[in-house]
Design a protein that fits this description.
about 100 residues; alpha+beta; 4 strands; globular
């Protein structure tokens, strides 16, 4: 297995994926309705314009960490899978955020 340089960055509402793009969630709409929430995108350095995974991390009552949504890109599922461990990287990042 080959490692790929990747980055998890904060995503603006306009950057977040939606059902219309083949995702299971409307991350853009969900982020708007959740208080104290931030959207994060996992991208690779090789193709920074392609979202490989997305997560919404929320602080409930501004103190309790909660990973509200997490999903890998449609092209990273089942037989078409391009990268492994995308969800695991986002979950690990959520854990790191919960410690801050």
């Amino acid at each position: 297995m080959e490692e790929v340089a990747a980055l998890i960055k904060k995503g603006k509402v306009a950057e977040l994926p939606s059902i219309q793009q083949g995702w299971r969630f409307n991350f853009d709409k969900e982020l708007k309705r959740l208080p104290n929430a931030t959207g994060y995108l996992l991208i690779t350095e090789e193709t920074p314009s392609v979202i490989e995974g997305c997560m919404i991390f929320q602080l409930i009552d501004k103190k309790e960490p909660y990973m509200a949504f997490v999903e890998v890109a449609p092209h990273n599922r089942k037989d078409k899978k391009k990268y492994d461990r995308v969800a695991g990287c986002l979950i690990a990042y959520a854990y790191q955020l919960s410690l801050i």
